[in-house]
Design brief:
- The protein is of the alpha/beta class.
- It has 7 helices and 10 strands.
- Strands 6-7-8-3-9-10 form a 6-stranded mixed sheet, with helices on both faces. A 4-stranded antiparallel sheet has the order 2-1-4-5, covered by helices on one side.
- Helix 3 crosses helix 4.
- The two termini are 34 Å apart.
- The protein binds adenosine-5'-triphosphate and magnesium ion (MG).
- It holds the Pfam family ABC_tran.
- InterPro entries: AAA+_ATPase (IPR003593), ABC_transporter-like_ATP-bd (IPR003439), ABC_transporter_ATP-binding (IPR050763), ABC_transptr_haem_export_CcmA (IPR005895), P-loop_NTPase (IPR027417).
Length: 234
């Protein structure tokens, strides 16, 4: 479970997040929408424990989130705008490094399986600096799910993915969702959320302006009109 209470974030004079309170239950799959600069990534980083709020609190599974709270950290897989990967290393080397960091005992099988799932078998020993944008993104996704986190925080995960990778990614989200993993996904791609999300949050100007549970067969046009009403006021 994720609880953010009255989160405010100020950068200098500017208020980036204003009083954001939201509770996300275990196993929910939530899409986070909103225009550029609305505060989505900032809120997600606060949930991930990468930055601190100016005021307000975050709790993960009922435990208040503090810096250096490693037990909570192991529960979380975070994919951000940056890949957090090392350019001079191959996918295998990067994943081995993170497996060690997460204290995984015998990660080889999991790493092999992931490399196959992201379809990089033929490039697994090549340095990332030779990779395309989408190949790096696929490796970053593997890094985020490597330790089988209970909570997956994804910031624009579809960036750079081709149609086949998007389809693989959608299946992966659906399957971890079914296993009971909590998924929070910031995205601008509405067609990628309709089958995999059961709730939508919309941010605008640092406020959480909409929190809607999606019921039954949600359509793309349904999500679009919800967004347009909130963001464009139409
Ligand atoms: N380190 C920083 N210093 C100053 N301002 C910042 C910083 N990080 C973010 N901001 C500002 O905070 C606001 C929210 O940024 P944030 O990245 O959370 O938006 P976002 O909703 O994720 O947007 P996008 O859809 O473009 O990714 C923006 O106006 C941005 O300029
Ligand atoms: Mg962002």
């Amino acid at each position: 479970m994720i609880e953010t209470r009255q989160i405010t974030k100020a950068m200098g004079e500017k208020l980036i997040l204003k009083d954001v309170s939201v509770t996300i239950g275990k196993g929910e799959s939530v899409a986070v929408l909103g225009p550029n600069g609305a505060g989505k990534s900032t809120w997600l980083k606060i949930v991930a424990g990468l930055i601190r709020p100016t005021s307000g609190t975050v709790a993960i599974n009922g435990m208040p989130k503090k810096k250096d709270n490693y037990s909570a950290q192991a529960l979380i897989g975070y994919l951000g705008h940056q890949s957090f990967l090392y350019d001079q290393f191959s996918p295998v080397e990067n994943l081995k490094y993170y497996a060690k960091l997460y204290g995984m005992k015998k990660p080889e099988k999991r790493i092999d399986e992931l490399i196959e799932r992201i379809n990089l078998q033929y490039f697994k020993h090549e340095p990332l600096r030779s990779f395309s944008r989408g190949m790096v993104q696929r490796t970053a996704i593997a890094r985020a799910i490597l330790h089988e986190p209970q909570i997956l925080l994804l910031d624009e995960p579809h960036t750079g993915l081709d149609q086949q990778s998007k389809s693989w990614f959608r299946d992966m989200i659906a399957s971890v969702h079914q296993e009971g993993v909590t998924v929070v996904m910031v995205t601008h791609e509405f067609d990628q959320l309709v089958d995999v999300s059961d709730r939508v949050l919309i941010f605008k100007n640092g406020h959480l302006t909409e929190d809607q549970v999606l019921r039954g067969s949600v359509t793309l046009s349904g999500v679009k009109s919800l967004y347009d009403r909130q963001v464009l006021g139409s």
